[in-house]
Amino acid sequence: MTNVVITTLTERPDFADRVFDFESPWPEFMRQDKVADALLGQVRAAFPAYCVVATDGDGAVVARGLSIPFCAEGPGRDPYPDGGWDAVLTWGFADVRAGRTPTAVSALEIAIDQAYQGQGLSHRMLTALRDAASAQGHDTLVAPVRPNGKQRQQRVSMRTYLTQCRDDGLPADPWLRVHVRAGGRIVKVAPASMLIGGSLDQWRGWTGLPFDHDGEVEVPEALVPVRCDITHDFAVYVEPNVWIHHDLGEA
C-alpha cells in the first residue's frame, strides 16, 4: 500500500473527473436514491477541499472519499439529523445557495476499488477526510455510517445491533470498528438516512426478486427489509445509518 497516494481534489483537480472511474461498490437498488442522483456527483466540484482521492503507482484511481460542509445551527438543523445522509447532502448545497456559513462537516462516502479492499486503505481514507476537514478550520467531522455487517441481520433493530461488541470492547461491525479505532464516538441512530422508493417492477429489475407479497422483503445488501405493498404497486426502503462524531486532532 506504500505506492498509494492520497490527496485532496483541491491539490489534484485533474482527478476530479476520475473519482468515479472504478466500479461502484453499491448494489443497484442503492443507486436509486433521488438525493444522491441529483447532488452527489456535484460534490467533487463544489467542495474539492473536502474530497480526497487515492491513486496507485500507475496513476489509477483506487479510492475516493467525499464529504460536505453544512450549517448545523438554526431552526430544523442538527449536527446529527434523523434524515442522516440525505439531510446533510441536501443542506450542504442549500447552504451554498443561501450564503450560510458551514458549522459542521459530514463524511458522505468512502469507496474503495475491490482490488484494494482489505488492505487498510479504508482507515487511511478516513484519516484523509479528517485531515481535509481540519485543514478548512473545522474541529469535528461527523459521519452517517452504513454498518456493512448489518445486512446479515436485517430484522434486528439498529439500536440492538449497536450493542454487539467484540471481547476487546470494539464494535462487532467492521466499518463501525474502523471509525471507533480512528477516535470516533457513536452518537445515535439516523433512522431515515436514505429513502428509496419505486414500483414493484422497478424493484424486480433492481434486485431480481419477485416482490409478489405484501410486507417485508429481505434484499441482499440492504440493512433492513424493504416494505412491499402489492395493492399500491410500490415498495420503499428506508435505511438507518449510525451517526459517529470525530474530534479532529485526536487519534
Provide an overview of this structure.
The chain has one domain (5-193, 241-247): Gcn5-related N-acetyltransferase (GNAT) (Aminopeptidase, 3-Layer(aba) Sandwich), CATH 3.40.630.30. The protein has 251 residues and is an alpha+beta fold. The protein has helices spanning 34-39, 43-46, 84-98, 121-135, 158-161, 174-181, 200-207; strands spanning 5-8, 52-55, 61-70, 104-112, 140-145, 185-198, 215-217, 226-229, 234-247.
The CATH superfamily bears the name Gcn5-related N-acetyltransferase (GNAT)
What is the domain tally? 1
Helix content: 10-25%
Summarize model confidence as the mean pLDDT: 96
Question: Which word captures the global form?
Answer: globular
Q: Using DSSP, what is the number of strands?
A: 9
What separation lies between the terminal Cα atoms?
21 Å
Number of helices: 7
Tell me the radius of gyration.
18 Å
TL;DR?
By secondary structure, the chain is α+β, with helices and mostly antiparallel strands.
Main features:
251 residues, alpha+beta, Aminopeptidase, 9 strands, 24% helix
Write the layout of secondary structure elements.
Layout: E1 5-8, H1 34-39, H2 43-46, E2 52-55, E3 61-70, H3 84-98, E4 104-112, H4 121-135, E5 140-145, H5 158-161, H6 174-181, E6 185-198, H7 200-207, E7 215-217, E8 226-229, E9 234-247
Antiparallel strand pairs: 1-2, 2-3, 3-4, 5-9, 6-9, 7-8, 8-9
